Here is the input.
Amino acid sequence: MMSILTALLVAAEGEGPASPFEVEFGLFFWTWLVFIALFFTLKRFAWPAIVRQTEERERKIANQLEEADRLNAEAREALEEHKRLLAGAREEATQLVNEAKVVAEREREALLDRTRKEQEDLLERAKREIGAERERAVTELRKEAVELSLAAAARLIETNLDDDRNRRLVEEFLSSLGQRR
Here is the structure.
């Protein structure tokens, strides 16, 4: 708008300024008059809308900053809660591992005790069986010794005595020998 007025003024006068530093009071007056009219028009109509938009934007930014601060605080709280939960989970996992170790150690001891008992039972049974076999062998040996003694005695005395009576005598003799040991 100003350039149109300036062009009209220059056209009305017929000639323009000789140098850019030369001041023309008519041009100066009209420039200021247009500036002041434009200023008051803008102040009355445009300025309230601009101020209102600026204040609204300022409130919106302030609300966004408050929301960001609130969300940041919530995030920090959530992070702290997460850290507490993670620490609790780690502690619980450690406790479970320790309990599992204790249970495994108890189970190991129980298995070792059961194995020892089975070994002792097996050894005891083997000793009993060996003792029984030894008794059978000794009894067999005694019977054979009785038979051999009777055969030897019969040849010595060349008389045949009663087998049952002789056998009893020899068994009593051998039994007395076994008890003297």
